[in-house]
Design goal:
Layout (H helix, E strand, L loop, with lengths): L3 E2 H8 L2 E3 L5 E2 L1 E2 L9 E4 L6 H4 L6 E5 L11 E5 L2 H18 L3 E2 L4 E2 L4 E2 L4 E2 L4 E2 L4 E2 L4 E2 L4 E2 L4 E2 L4 E2 L4 E2 L4 E2 L4 E2 L4 E4 L4 E3 L5 E3 L5 E4 L4 E2 L4 E3 L5 E4 L4 E2 L4 E2 L4 E2 L4 E2 L4 E2 L4 E2 L4 E2 L4 E2 L4 E2 L4 E2 L4 E2 L9 E3 L4 E2 H22 L1
Parallel strand pairs: 4-5, 5-6, 6-7, 8-11, 9-12, 10-13, 11-14, 12-15, 13-16, 14-17, 15-18, 16-19, 17-20, 18-21, 19-24, 20-25, 21-26, 24-27, 25-28, 26-29, 27-30, 28-31, 29-32, 30-33, 31-34, 32-35, 33-36, 34-37, 35-38, 37-39
Antiparallel strand pairs: 1-3, 2-7, 22-23, 39-40
Length: 336
């Protein structure tokens, strides 16, 4: 069990303690559910009533927070309570993961594989030939790492992940359970008899540093070259990324989105859930795409917002929806 005094927590977050700096906390909780020994946070004023009844040992608040009733808890005052709580969660998770080291006796590791210092290899993990695993990498049970894969320092691979041969994973990445990296791209050549002949997919997937891949997301290997997920991109659960796709730096994509082959999504984009992209198009940097949109053409202007299927500029989409709601009334008038 990890224990910290409030003084240590405040120092970690660059804040100050209002109360007992020697009080100890060992878990993190919601303010409305917290018990003794836990630390919570208050950033949204809607939750302020809970701070007067919470059993938490401490609550992280903004520096300008002024209680309207007596408090039964200690406070840690910081510049931005929401950001500070995020930093605390990151540190808590990092410390828990650092405690996990060693190689399970029933993991299978080929002799030619290279393992860095402080790695954790869980039960029933398979690591193929000529694999390179960096320092402090954590690989959880039932994961498959194919031949010639490279995984850089401090990356976490959760249970049941499959990383096919030759793929490259950067530093400080997180790949969640069930994700498949480097599966065969969906490429087939039509034949005269109406059948389809598979086109060999001999490229790789390259995931750069600080990328997060959600549970059961699939990223296909390239036909030639590489499918590329650039630094800092965040992919939600249940996303399909096809062969030779490029996803730009710090782009975030929500669940159930599908991106067809050879499409290039720019940097700093925001993509809602269930969005579909056709293949061989380009999406400009800082584009925002609403949920369930269908992207049929390239978007060339940076910083624009799109919605609908087929997608249109978001302002136009809202005008269209306003007219659609009036259609039944307009039809009745037209019928008369």
């Amino acid at each position: 069990m990890l224990k910290f005094t409030l003084g240590q927590v405040a120092q970690m977050l660059g804040g100050t303690v209002e109360g007992n700096p020697d009080a100890e906390v060992f878990t993190i909780a919601k303010i409305q559910e917290a018990q003794a020994g836990s630390i919570a946070f208050l950033a949204n004023p809607k939750y302020e009533p809970y701070i007067y009844t919470t059993q938490a040992t401490a609550v992280i608040v903004n520096q300008d927070f002024e209680p309207k009733q007596p408090l039964q808890t200690n406070l840690i005052r910081v510049k931005d309570a929401y950001l500070a709580f995020t930093q605390l969660l990151e540190q808590y998770q990092r410390l828990r993961q650092q405690a996990q080291q060693g190689i399970a006796p029933n993991a299978h590791i080929e002799e030619s594989a290279q393992l860095g210092e402080g790695v954790y290899i869980g039960p029933f993990v398979y690591i193929g030939k000529n694999v390179r695993i960096g320092k402090q990498v954590k690989i959880y049970p039932h994961t498959f790492i194919g031949d010639n894969v490279s995984i850089d320092d401090h990356t976490v691979i959760y249970a049941g992940v499959k990383i096919y041969e030759g793929c490259v994973i950067g530093k400080h990445c997180v790949i969640h359970a069930g994700a498949v990296i480097g599966s065969e791209g969906f490429g087939f050549a039509p034949q005269e008899d109406g059948s389809y002949r598979p086109i060999p997919q001999v490229g790789i997937v390259h995931v750069e540093d600080h990328v997060r891949v959600g549970a059961n997301t699939t990223i296909d290997r390239a036909t030639l070259g590489k499918t590329l997920i650039k630094q800092g991109a965040k992919l939600d659960n249940l996303i399909q990324v096809a062969h030779n796709v490029t996803i730009g730096k710090h782009t975030v994509i929500a669940a159930q989105t599908g991106i067809a082959g050879s499409t290039e999504v720019g940097s700093y984009c925001m993509v809602g859930g269930q969005v579909g992209f056709v293949g061989h198009i380009k999406i400009a940097d800082k584009t925002i795409i609403g949920a369930q949109s269908g992207i049929l053409d390239s978007i060339t202007e940076e910083g624009t917002k799109w919605q609908g299927s087929p997608a249109m500029p978001m302002s136009q989409y809202y005008r269209v929806q306003a007219v659609l709601r009036k259609l039944p009334e307009l039809w009745r008038k037209l019928s008369k």
